[in-house]
Amino acid sequence: MSALGFRGVLATWTLALVSASLAAVGAVALVQTHRLAREEALDRARRGLARGFEAVRLGLPPDGFEEPDGVVLSVRLRDQVDAEYADPRVALWRQALDGGVAAALLGGDIGAVAVRPLPGDPSSGVLEARVPAASIRARVARFATRAAVAAGLLAGLSVLASLAVARRLGRPVARLAAAASALGRGDLQTPLPGGEAGEVGELARTLESMRLQLLEVTGEAERSRFELESVLASVSEGVFAVDRDRRIRYLSPRAEALLGVGSGAAIGAFCGEILRPEPVAGEPPCESRCPILQARFRGPVRASEVLRCGAGPWVARLSSSPPVGALQVQILRPETAEEAARRARDAVVADLAHELKTPLAAQRASLELLRERLSAGDSESAELAAAVEAGALRLQRLIDNLLESVRIEAGELAIRRAPLELDEVVEEAIGTMAPLLAKRGQRLELSLPHPLPGLVGDAPRLVQALVNVVANASKFAPPGSEVRIGVSLRQEALALWVEDEGPGFEPAELSRLTTRFRRGAGAAEPREEGSGLGLWITRSIAERHGGALEVARLGGRTRVTLELPVAESAA
Fold it and tell me: Which of 144, 185, 435, 528 is the most buried (most CB within 10 A)?
């Protein structure tokens, strides 16, 4: 079909159908003609016999009588009939001698035969009228010749008609096929032919609509790609993307400059062969410390590596994101002196916090034992022990926040996702903050609906986030005031909020409270100054759970809200 094309196939099938029809009609007509020719020959033999018998009665010799239509008259005497045995006509002759007229169609060259006895009593012989088989075949041949000529004329007319029909029907199909082929090769500018009626016209209109939609989508994608490339070309960081095998599939111009390699040489190569990171403790980072692999299972990861590519060994900050589809995007930038100093500071802070945690935990345990052994009448000692325990708690919270800030800054704040109960998180946070609330004489009011929807997340991180919010509320609220904790249900989300009766913040400060080391400037901060890390860490924990942190003033109260997705969305 591909060699003939649509028009050729249509013409061939039309011609084949017409030819098959003519052949079938011709075969039936030929058979019927042969049958009718034989019957007509037998009838001619009978008529010729009747005319010959009248001639004999009139005394005319039958052999000299010229019979039309190829009828041959002859006389067979009784002696000849009695002596003949081999001639196929002998049975007819004897039947006629016995009386009556006998007629039959015989095979071979004999054809149609009609016989009757000669006049006289008894008959001296028989009169025979015969139409030879050659005469019958000649008539059939003449009909077959005429039929063949007629069939040829009809076949010629059918060929012309089929070619005309194929040309008429095939021309729009051919144009549509050529346009569709161009469309398949990516030519979206050439419109498809229209104006045809029926199914071909409907198909053309459908393809034209698809072409316009593809043209619009392709144009939008091209504009988006151009805008993205413009943005990537303007940023100071290098951007590259790798596939599941960590082979480079995209390299921005800035990344080419940093790595000292062109896209042609880098595309398809293993990223470790292009970046060439220095071994750590004698082991290549690509084997066990690859940030690209860590980001696939732990979320966004930041790492520092010494690369031996481009202008020589240089310290690079590599930010790896989780895969999106089949690609994983990496951001690469040289580490500045400020970043190196901050990284060194974070390392010192982390080491110091780790060193302080162990003695502080022992101090808190000793304070708990001391508080249990104090007698009920020694209120002054109990008050001193509670004050020391509250101070230890604040110090513990500060150390936890410092460690958490270092992890967030390094991109190592991993969230473990597991089913959890929110009321257990609230209960643990309240138990942790009870000494501070009691020291300031503050009351705690809970407003938790029942039952609470299930959550999926990291329970210890959520406890830490809630402790930070309650600590802020306790710090800024007046002594003896009320701190409220409640839960509101939203569409596919849950809002865990904490309200206090503190003076609040200036409206301009609300949007900056969740930044690092930011404290409220519009409110008089209590004597126990904070580090400005609590809400920043809380926001990071909420965002890593797929939620958000909101700070607002409602009716003279400050409300801090953690919005968290319910189990179906978080999972």
Answer: 435
